[in-house]
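// run 5 | inverse folding | seed 20
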C-alpha cells in the first residue's frame, strides 16, 4: 500500500488493475489494527473461477495471513457493494466493519437486493459504511462497461 494512501484508495488502485486485466474493476483490502492484512482484486476471468471475487480472494488471503478461522477484528474495504455470495462470506468470517464505495442496484446484497445482513438467518452483520470513494468507483465501473459495449 502506498504511504499515506487510505485503505479505500488502495482498493481503488486494485480495481484499476482489475480493469486493466479485463476484469470487472473491483478491489478489496482487509485491515487489522491499522495494518494491511490482505489486498486483492477480481480474478474471475484470470482464474476461470466465478467465485474469485475481490472480497473472497481478500478474505482467503487474510485468513491465511492471520492464521485464524474468523476475522472479527478486521475491516473490509471494497469498491463495490458486495453480492449475496460475498455478503455470506463476510458474515461467516465475522468481519467487524464493511466499507464499500459504489452501490450495486443490480447485484448488490447489502443495501440493495436481498439485504443479506438484515435477514433473520444472517448469523453476523458487520457495521456497514457505504459511499466511501463512491464517485471514483462508479466512474471506473461505468467506463469499464461502456468500453465493452
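// decoded
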Amino acid at each position: 500500500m502506498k504511504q499515506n494512501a487510505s485503505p479505500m484508495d488502495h482498493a481503488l488502485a486494485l480495481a484499476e488493475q482489475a480493469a486493466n486485466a479485463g476484469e470487472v474493476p473491483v478491489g478489496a483490502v482487509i485491515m487489522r489494527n491499522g495494518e494491511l492484512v490482505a489486498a486483492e482484486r477480481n480474478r474471475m476471468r484470470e482464474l476461470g473461477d466465478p467465485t474469485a471475487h475481490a472480497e473472497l480472494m481478500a478474505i482467503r488471503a487474510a485468513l491465511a495471513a492471520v492464521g485464524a478461522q474468523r476475522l472479527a477484528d478486521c475491516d473490509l474495504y471494497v469498491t463495490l457493494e458486495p453480492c449475496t455470495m460475498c455478503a455470506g462470506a463476510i458474515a461467516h468470517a465475522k468481519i467487524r466493519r464493511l466499507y464499500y464505495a459504489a452501490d450495486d442496484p443490480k447485484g448488490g446484497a447489502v443495501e440493495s437486493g436481498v439485504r443479506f445482513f438484515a435477514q433473520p438467518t444472517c448469523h453476523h452483520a458487520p457495521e456497514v459504511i457505504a459511499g466511501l470513494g463512491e464517485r471514483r468507483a462508479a466512474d471506473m465501473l461505468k467506463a469499464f462497461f461502456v468500453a465493452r459495449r
